[in-house]
Specification:
66% helix, two-stranded antiparallel sheet, 6-stranded mixed sheet, Rossmann fold
Length: 647
């Protein structure tokens, strides 16, 4: 027993910095939060109940000041009293600078919580702090080995985008009691745990201090909250969690440096991505439909379609909604831990995570973002104003040119990543242009930009493949002639050609695929509407294809959906065409009409007069409306609508 207590004491002494910092920030946060709450109330920083806000009573904001003060005081005391390095991955000087920039961002947040700053002013403050992190703290993607050789300007842009994006992600997700604080706590645990996995336990001290402060604040911030983070706290959470991975040289793994932080902050990042997409679409829709049925909206305009709002509509209870998003964040973190543990054997885990992510995205987006996107594409596609169509026609070729150039550059980076080749500054300046430019000129030579891809044939895609192959071979020839061959040239050439062709084809297939996707979403929405006309189509051949094409083209403008097919070809019975089941032949019509609740039958096949009469009788007996869809060639009388004397 004595030996047990001796060992326990030895463990406690060795781990004192870890539990000491955690408990220290927890105690500070527990004490400072009520003080900051009282200060916020005295200064008038209070969120009053409103239609967009969830709180039902006036609640002080800017409580995140307590989190900032707790973390800063605890880390400063540790560094000053012990004189030890806070982390082996960066000097103490860096953390002092991070704390100074955090103070500047907290000041911006306090000003916004007090006075309500214009969005552009707040954004300018965020960008200034992000630039300070890049130039003063040397935070950047250059600390990640894969990006070590990238140009400084590109590193600066990516770093600023990453930090500002994370800051706004936590700012936008902070709409539910305890949500942003709990997600930040889970993210800190995940990112700290990743450092333990790769053998840097001491580097977790900053994350432990941060987690202690978040846990203490959560005591007052969880439902029913007596204080909110405000912009003061939410922006601080996003800043610290985004900047720390960029100042740490956490091993030689891209996944550890960026993958784990992305997973740990997956929920707020996903919510922010949806918000930007949703608001951008609605802003464009507002401009397109101005004066009709939409009000004026803009990208910065708040809405009630964030993740927490949607989940709250299902659960009603804020606690259940918060725990649901906590569980989702914990799942992402566990995926990161599993990938670190499995390392090269993590492919199956990635597939499971990808499938879960796709299900969540589709289920969450189909009723709002994808529906709005379908409305926008429909408005754009059917705007017949000549000036608008002329302008879009003029922009079509530049759009394809710019998109292809961007795709080729991205394909080059992807190929380098797949082959584990370093992306150095020299490679970006020499090898990348030598790969991209010849392929681009080959596309021009093979008339890729004078082809109407919405009506392309297989031969057009064969020409596209020839263009890519010609461009890649020309690229290799130039590299050899200039004396730049490398050991991976053959593998890189083959993989780059394959990826480039697939990317270019995907871009050209995007329009019909998107049209079908939005039609499927539109049909799913209309299926629940009792006012929707449910159509049974008799005939599953080419005429049905043209009929369905017209329905797809008018998606979001009609209230009709195809629910089933009939066809006299017995081979088709029970099979699916375009996702619609062939229920049987004409003799099965009455059963299909009752089972599918059909109110309209569309005849989309060529019938003999006798067969047509039979079909009309069958459908009339079933009590449904019958229409005929036909597309046929007729000879026109040359004298019709002309001067009879000339004829």
């Amino acid at each position: 027993m004595t030996q047990f207590f001796t060992n326990l004491l030895d463990v406690l002494v060795k781990t004192a910095p870890y539990w000491g910092l955690f408990l220290g920030t927890f105690a500070l946060g527990y004490v400072l939060t009520p003080l900051c709450r009282a200060l916020a109330r005295k200064c008038g920083m209070v969120d009053a109940p409103s239609a967009r806000r969830i709180n039902t009573v006036p609640t002080p904001r800017a409580g995140g000041l307590a989190v900032f003060l707790s973390v800063t005081a605890a880390l400063a005391a540790y560094m000053l009293l012990t004189g030890a390095q806070l982390s082996p991955l960066f000097p103490n000087e860096v953390i002092w600078r991070v704390m100074a920039l955090s103070a500047a961002l907290v000041a911006v947040g306090l000003a916004d919580d007090k006075f309500g700053l214009p969005p552009w002013v707040k954004l300018a403050g965020q960008v200034a702090v992000a630039l300070g992190a890049f130039f003063w703290c040397h935070a950047g993607f250059h600390t990640v080995p894969f990006f070590a050789g990238m140009p400084v300007w590109l590193d600066c842009v990516l770093t600023t985008f990453w930090i500002v994006g994370a800051v706004n992600a936590f700012n936008l997700i902070d709409g539910l009691d305890g949500l942003a604080t709990g997600l930040a706590l889970i993210a800190a645990i995940g990112m700290g745990g990743a450092l333990v996995f790769i053998g840097y336990p001491q580097a977790t001290l900053v994350y432990l201090a941060f987690a202690g402060a978040c846990l203490a604040f959560l005591r007052y911030n969880f439902h029913p909250a007596s204080v909110f983070l405000g912009d003061t706290g939410s922006m601080y959470l996003g800043f610290l969690l985004s900047v720390l991975p960029l100042v740490m040289k956490s091993g030689d793994s891209l996944f550890v440096s960026l993958g784990v932080p992305l997973l740990a902050m997956g929920v707020p990042i996903f919510d922010t991505t949806l918000a930007i997409m949703r608001r951008s679409i609605r802003a464009v829709l507002s401009r397109e439909q101005k004066g009709r049925d939409e009000g004026n909206t803009h990208v910065m305009q708040a809405d009630t379609d964030h993740l927490h709002h949607r989940i709250l509509r299902h659960f009603v209870s804020q606690r259940k909604a918060a725990f649901t998003l906590y569980a989702l964040a914990a799942f992402f973190v566990s995926v990161g831990f599993g990938a670190l543990a499995l390392r090269d054997r993590a492919a199956g885990l990635y597939i499971v995570a990808f499938v879960v992510g796709v299900v969540i995205v589709v289920r969450d987006m189909r009723r709002i973002e994808l529906w709005d996107a379908g409305r926008l594409l429909n408005v754009v596609a059917h705007d017949r104003a000549s000036a608008v169509r002329r302008r879009r026609a003029m922009l079509a070729v530049p759009f394809f040119v710019a998109s292809d150039a961007l795709l080729l550059v991205m394909t080059w980076f992807l190929t380098a990543l797949l082959l584990s080749l370093p992306v150095t500054s020299t490679a970006c300046h020499t090898h990348m242009p030598l790969c991209v430019v010849p392929v681009f000129f080959a596309l021009v030579f093979f008339r890729a930009y004078s082809t109407v891809w919405s009506r392309a044939r297989i031969s057009n895609y064969v020409r596209l493949a020839c263009a890519v192959a010609t461009g890649v071979l020309a690229c290799d020839a130039i590299i050899i002639l200039m004396g730049y061959p490398h050991s991976h040239m053959v593998a890189f050439t083959a993989l780059y050609a394959q990826n480039a062709f697939l990317a270019l084809v995907a871009l050209r297939f995007a329009r019909p695929i998107l049209r079908d996707v939005f039609y499927a979403l539109d049909s799913a929405r209309l299926a629940d509407d009792p006012a929707t006309s449910r159509i049974l189509v008799y005939g599953a051949g080419l005429r049905y294809s043209t009929f369905r094409r017209e329905l797809v083209r008018s998606a979001s403008r009609n209230s009709r959906i195809v629910v089933g097919l009939l066809d006299d070809d017995i081979v088709l019975r029970g099979h699916y065409i375009g996702g619609i089941r062939v229920c049987g032949s004409l003799s099965s019509a009455k059963v299909a009409i009752r089972a599918l609740r059909v109110d309209t039958v569309v005849i989309a096949c060529q019938l003999t007069p006798e067969r047509l009469a039979l079909a009309r009788k069958v459908f009339a007996d079933a009590g449904v409306r019958v229409t005929l869809w036909s597309c046929e060639e007729k000879e026109l009388d040359p004298c019709q609508n002309s001067d009879e004397k000339k004829c």
